[in-house]
Prior knowledge:
By secondary structure, the chain is an alpha+beta fold. Helices cover 23% and strands 34% of the residues.
Amino acid sequence: MTQTKNNFLSTQTKFLSEYVFPFLDNPSTLYFVAKMYTTKSLKKLIKILSNNTKYEQVVGISLRIKFDDGSFRSLSPYKKLRFIDLPKIGSLFKQLLISRSEHYRRMKLKVVSIVYTYHVYPSDYVLTDIEKTILEPEVIKPTSKESLQHLTDDKTNIKYMNLFKIFKLPLSFTGSIQFLLELKLLNNNISDQIVLDDDNIKYRILFNTISTKEMEVNLVLQEDPSMILYKVKDKLF
């Protein structure tokens, strides 16, 4: 283990490295950490990596949180993206923390550090199309929808999948008008339009018609549509 300047810790294993952004003197709620420290800690990591990492080089990264009881929680998947795109993932990390903040508030747990696990890939490593998607892509088939783990919204009685507690994805066919209507009823942070004057609407949904019986849906950041958070294909048979 090595200690970097300002008491920020960096450890390295054979494949993965770890960057710890601690605030032991000021344990805070997860919500406060999301708002105040997510961007700051990610910028610190980017500054450290910038000395030896090219803009187009691929970096894999995931986010963990250490609580004041000594426990760790992994709050994001491990995802690969270009080094130049690292700042963009900060918005997703922040939303992931906020979405889980109430749960840990009820448990009366305070955060003492943010932990980034990462790996810088060789300069000739190229991202695949699947790897370019921030959250895991899926293909949904009508025959399997009832077997999917889903919830039912109390107000609307709409069945949906809870994607990382950020998006509520209706189980209706994505190529239907019903899907878009239900998506908007379930989510106040998504629009199918470009919205830059409402801070609550952070995501945009894009539709790509493959055929009359197949639709692809991309959930992207409003501020940067090139950052695909979630991709799903829906087929009728």
